[in-house]
Design goal:
By secondary structure, this protein is of the alpha+beta class. Helix content is 30%, strand content 22%. Helix 14 runs antiparallel to helix 15. The protein is globular.
Length: 815
């Protein structure tokens, strides 16, 4: 390659060194003429110097912050600021983009799909974090400091100042160029002479997950990086440290299962000095900017290409601008806003932000998606944060929170499941059953990597949970074509797994194949109980993992019946599998669900006693999200029974489910208690969630965030998807800490081809149709009138339950 020189070293296996843990409003005063003139004078001086940029602006915020002596400021729903870091480093903020993720100040970068370890020991493989930091948590050199999590723009910013220098560092996982992690450092020298800023190496010890195969030094000439038309690249500080980089090739130490291979990854990172130097020879401030990058790829060529593209886009700030533009496109005006409660709005925005950060850009069709784990991409090392595994949390807790705004991301999740059908077929076969039994936990290959054998064998409700999401997606989008689209499973499945999946074409797996095979699994898994005169499911584990194995988990059996019924519904629509569909419906109709005729409630399983402690939301979810028809008195009895026996130390998402179901009964007081209870798991100032309220368990707990967002969308907005409509039954939301109920709005709510803004206040619903695709109309039905919306317009109606119905799409034939 022209302009590139390489210095190579061959390396064998690096020593197995244990990786270290991560370190881890004032009253307004009247403005007089003097103040105005003074302000204009200062502004002009800075403009003349041409050195007044975002650094000093950021530091003014920091000085204002210190003067007000507050732990964090709340002025913008997308921005969280603090002059101090959390005491517990587990609650430091994160940056991620669906391919790369890291905890700020941590020594680790994780790459999606990169796992090390055999079966239950499989975990995210640690890459050393080779980007420099201008600050580490133990720093004492700075008189002013400000840390900003900018969720609108997907970055974390560090702002520092002392008598000599102002420094700002932006860290972001590039949202469009997803194989890049970038940091940009601006240094403003305020004194005459030379200013120095130390760069900290936080890379930590050598990773015990990776074998180093080779290392080389890359030197790029000036043709790869031009800062502007006026400044030659040799004089441009932005490019100064990009042109010398280190390339390393690694392979994982241990494959995930027999028959799978070691995974290879290439990294290229900018070499950086121990300190940055800025000379100021005039009377004005002098600012210089420096850029450093960390690139990953599966081959040397692709990684070099990623790095070179990054270098080229440094021109005129386009590297950053491309990232900002993509985040702007990602948000697409989506917002959940609570009037006069900025803290609640920030809770909702940050929950959405952290979940969105785990999805790659939909503009890059070549980027592979490996699912979302409970702690997200920045977490999941050995023995922590569920080791980065994917299980029902993704499909049952996170995805429903995305569906009203980002159906395309829910489609991505479902595609992930379709492509891993071979693993589900292999698992069912290994236990002697037909069809597809989805693994409780997956990592790279799609086989079950859960470290606990009882979970692998008994916690099978995940299969029905996936189909529950598929049904909600189809009803919300009318995307029936997804059911017959081909997906290729050969990329991740092992040879053994493909051999066990010989009954399907693994180069063309359809969502309907997944649906049909899950129904076949349940058909073979149930048994007939002559005494009950019903089909039963014995030896299972429901969401309450503290009791297992049990017979006839109420949650599992209802979810299974819905799986079977939806499979029959789709088979009928596609005009196929008629005999099987009849059998699926029969099993669903006759599947036993525990019910206590005396106390008029649903026991969690056969033999359940209400004085037993339940781990988390389980049987209460028969009402929502499963929607089992029952008397209100029975649902009330379920809620009262499990409210008393559910552990107070259970995981975060539990309380959101209680809140939704209390709201379904119009019990706003009990709903408010449960809604607020989940907020105890949020850790300020950066709104990082812990799995449990005592700070234990996984972080940054996306599962809890998903449950929280569901409590807003399906609880206080009363959102429900049906096969031919969507229902909204809104209730005003409690203030995050004051008494009182607040107006609430959601922006860019998508239903089929329509996009709405919805504002709810004490008396009315303001429904604005923002855009529509095609010629169909939305029929908005109330108790007394039907409104027709065919083009962008605004509709204000009395606050009540409303149904939105869209003209049916044409029937689809199975290809």
């Amino acid at each position: 390659m022209v302009g590139l020189s390489v210095t190579s070293k061959e390396g064998g296996n690096r020593p197995s060194v244990k990786a270290s843990s991560r370190n881890f409003s004032r009253p307004k005063s009247p403005m007089n003429l003097t103040a105005v003139l003074g302000f204009l004078l200062l502004f002009c001086l800075f403009m003349v110097s041409q050195r007044y940029d975002d650094v000093s602006s950021c530091m003014r915020s920091g000085q204002r912050f210190v003067k007000t002596n507050r732990e964090f400021r709340k002025t913008n729903p997308y921005v969280l600021e603090s002059s101090i870091l959390p005491n517990d480093s587990r609650f430091y903020p994160t940056v991620a983009n669906g391919v790369l993720g890291t905890v700020i100040f941590g020594d680790t970068i994780y790459m999606a799909g990169l796992y090390n370890g055999y079966k239950g020991e499989s975990h995210r493989a640690r890459l050393q974090n080779n980007i420099p930091y201008v600050y580490v948590p133990e720093s004492t050199l700075w008189s002013t400091q400000l840390f900003t999590q900018d969720m609108k723009n997907g970055m974390f910013t560090i702002c520092l100042s002392n008598t000599n220098v102002i420094v700002t560092q932006k860290i972001y996982a590039h949202k469009l160029l997803t194989n890049l992690l970038v940091t940009e450092v601006s240094v403003t020298c305020k004194i005459q002479g030379t200013c120095y800023v130390r760069l900290h190496d936080v890379s930590g010890p050598v990773s015990k997950d990776m074998n180093l195969n080779s290392t080389e030094t890359l030197h790029y000439n000036s043709s790869y990086c031009n800062c502007s038309k006026d400044i030659p690249s040799s004089d441009c500080p932005k490019c100064q440290y990009l042109r010398s980089a280190t390339h390393k090739e690694f392979t994982t130490v241990t494959p995930e299962i027999n028959g799978s291979s070691h995974l290879t990854v290439h990294v290229i990172y900018s070499q950086f000095p121990k300190k940055l130097t800025v000379q100021n020879i005039g009377n004005n401030f002098t600012t210089k900017k420096f850029v450093f990058m960390f690139a990953v790829g599966e081959t040397r060529e692709s990684t070099m290409a990623n790095y070179i593209v990054g270098m080229g886009t440094v021109t005129a700030n386009s590297l950053l601008q491309l990232h900002l533009n993509e985040w702007l496109r990602q948000w697409n005006s989506v917002l959940i806003d609570v009037k006069n409660d900025i803290q609640s709005t920030q809770y909702m925005v940050s929950a959405l932000y952290f979940i969105l950060s785990n999805f790659p850009s939909t503009k890059n069709q070549q980027t592979k998606f490996y699912g979302v784990s409970p702690g997200g991409l920045p977490n999941g090392g050995s023995d922590v944060d569920y080791m980065g595994h994917v299980f029902w949390d993704q499909d049952f807790w996170m995805a429903p929170a995305l569906l009203p705004f980002y159906p395309e991301l829910v489609r991505m999740i479902l595609t992930y499941r379709v492509r891993r059908l071979p693993g589900a077929l292999a698992k069912a076969k290994s236990f002697g059953y037909k069809g597809a039994d989805y693994p409780w936990e997956t990592a790279y290959t799609g086989s079950d990597v859960c470290p606990g054998e009882n979970y692998v064998e008994y916690e099978i409700h995940v299969t029905a949970d996936i189909i529950h999401l598929l049904k909600q997606y189809i009803y919300a989008t009318d995307d029936w074509s997804f059911l017959v689209e081909c997906q290729n499973a050969t990329e991740v499945a092992s040879r053994t797994m493909l051999e066990l999946s010989s009954e399907i074409n693994t180069t063309c797996i359809r969502a309907y194949d997944m649906l049909r095979q899950t129904a076949e699994f349940w058909s073979s898994r149930v048994t007939w109980d002559a005494v009950k005169g019903r089909y039963v499911l014995n030896n299972v584990m429901g969401p309450d993992e503290w009791h297992a194995p049990v017979n006839n988990s109420a949650f599992t059996n209802v979810a299974v019946a819905q799986n079977l019924n939806f499979a029959a519904e789709v088979a009928t629509k596609l005009d196929c599998d008629k005999e099987k569909a009849h059998r699926w419906q029969l099993i669903a109709k006759l599947l036993y669900v525990p019910y206590n005729e005396t106390a008029h409630y649903h026991p969690e399983y056969d033999g359940f006693h209400p004085n037993e402690t339940v781990k988390q939301a389980d049987t209460v979810m028969l009402g929502f999200p499963l929607g089992l028809p029952m008397l209100e008195s029975v649902q009330y009895n379920d809620l009262k029974a499990y409210n008393s026996c559910t552990s107070a130390y259970g995981p975060a998402m539990t309380w959101g489910m209680f809140a939704i179901n209390w709201l379904q009964l119009n019990d706003t007081e009990n709903a408010k208690l449960m809604y607020r209870r989940q907020l105890r798991n949020i850790h300020i100032p950066f709104n990082i969630w812990s799995e449990n309220a005592d700070s234990s368990g996984a972080v940054n707990f996306l599962t809890g965030m998903g449950g929280y967002l569901q409590s807003v969308l399906y609880g206080y907005f009363g959102l429900r998807y049906r096969n031919d409509s969507v229902t909204l039954n809104p209730t005003l939301i409690p203030h995050s800490y004051y008494n009182g109920e607040m107006d609430i709005s959601i922006h860019s709510f998508k239903y089929r081809q329509f996009t709405f803004d919805i504002f709810v206040n004490q008396t009315s619903i303001n429904l604005t149709l923002k855009s529509t695709v095609g010629s169909n109309c939305a029929y908005v039905n109330t108790s007394s009138y039907t409104y027709v919306m065919c083009r962008p317009q605004e509709l204000i109606i009395q606050r009540q339950r409303i149904y939105i119905i869209v003209k049916k799409s044409n029937e689809l034939s199975l290809l």
